[in-house]
UniProtKB/TrEMBL annotation:
Name of this protein: Lipoprotein
Top-level taxon of origin: Bacteria
Species in which this protein is naturally found: Eikenella corrodens
Signal peptide extent: 1-28
Record key words, sorted: Signal
Length: 141
């Protein structure tokens, strides 16, 4: 393969790689959950989740619209087995959970508590995406 062909292939793959990286950083909307919960109150979502949100951000401003964010941390584990011992023909294994990471389930609401959308993020910055940081800086001044 000549060097020009390899150069063309990398030029073609570069935009796709950049798009994949950017798509992974942002929050993604969960369409089924959004259709189910849109227009309902946040109290119903909290009751269904059976726990209070881990993070609450109020008065986030994006595109001149005020939004509130409620986030639940969801931890992910792999279940693995470890060999413990053997007695005769029987081998004993122990299951254990190995922590692999977490994501946040984010509910975006109007200031009155009406749900607009349900989103997921693995490593995105929802505060920055929804303008919560800028609003907090303005309040400090």
């Amino acid at each position: 393969m000549c060097p020009q062909t390899a150069s063309r292939k990398t030029k073609r793959l570069l935009p796709f790689a950049a798009a994949l990286l950017l798509a992974g950083c942002a929050t993604t909307i969960s369409p089924i959950d959004t259709l189910r919960w849109r227009g309902k109150g946040i109290s119903a979502f909290v009751a269904d989740a059976q726990r209070m949100p881990d993070i609450v951000r109020r008065n986030c401003v994006k595109n001149n619209e005020v939004r509130d964010l409620y986030a639940w941390r969801i931890e992910y584990y792999d279940v693995r087995q470890a060999y413990v011992g053997q007695s005769g023909n029987v081998q004993y294994y122990q299951n254990y959970r190995h922590y692999v990471g977490h994501e946040y389930r984010i509910v975006v609401t109007k200031p009155d508590g009406t749900i607009l959308s349900v989103r997921d993020t693995f490593f995105g910055n929802a505060d920055k995406e929804y303008g919560c940081e800028e609003y907090r800086e303005e309040l400090k001044l």
